[in-house]
Known about the structure:
By secondary structure, this protein is mainly beta. The chain is about 10% helix and about 45% strand. The chain contains four helices and 18 strands. The protein has an 18-stranded mixed sheet that branches. The longest helix has 6 residues, at about 80-85. It is globular. It starts with a strand and ends with a helix.
Amino acid sequence: TCTRLFVVIKRQMKNNVIKLLIFGILIFTSCKKHKKNKIPEGAFPIVYEGHLYIKGSVNGIEGNYAFDTAATNLYFDDNYYSDNNFKYKNTSVGILPGVGTKPQRVTVIIDSVQFNLGGNLFKTNGVPVLKLKPILGDIADGILGIEYFNNSVLEINYENKYMKIYSNIDSADIYGWDKIELTKKDNRLYIPLTVTVNDTINISGNYLLDFGSGRTISLTSLISEEHNLIDNIDNK
Length: 236
């Protein structure tokens, strides 16, 4: 089977909430099992190892950047940063919460940082340098957030291991695909979902679509308490 994912990110301001469309995963039965296609022009390679890694380069130095829809900016792993002797003059020190089990005291690059993904050149600043390899594994050289793909159509092709950016949806082949309307708030994507826990408990709501999560579905402690999951689930 062939599996692809299209993410269409459109800015449509209404009541301070940005609506998005995500073209869901489709399985094409006509694909040959052992067929190997080349990466199309303008695409950039990816690696899937627990997380989705984009292969790119910074100042000509290649790296694997975990694609994280719950992140916004570019982040460097500290070993990747020090081993390649990046020379940025303006840096500062900050405290970054939410990485691993406790906040990290990190270096933040103030200078402009340019990175390349398959011929697509991006520029940013305020890049934190984190201890990512102990959390994600040795493959991780950094994290890449979703903001670089705003106002574009992003194809994620797991079968042939590439991602490609389109300027509009008419440029991509989406015949036979299903659409799922998402909500974007504070640069985060939320998907409407109902989780059937057992015969009596169904949990509906907006779930954070987080490519950086290593799990399939996570529930908050507040929801756990509300549905008394500790007592109502036998196997946990």
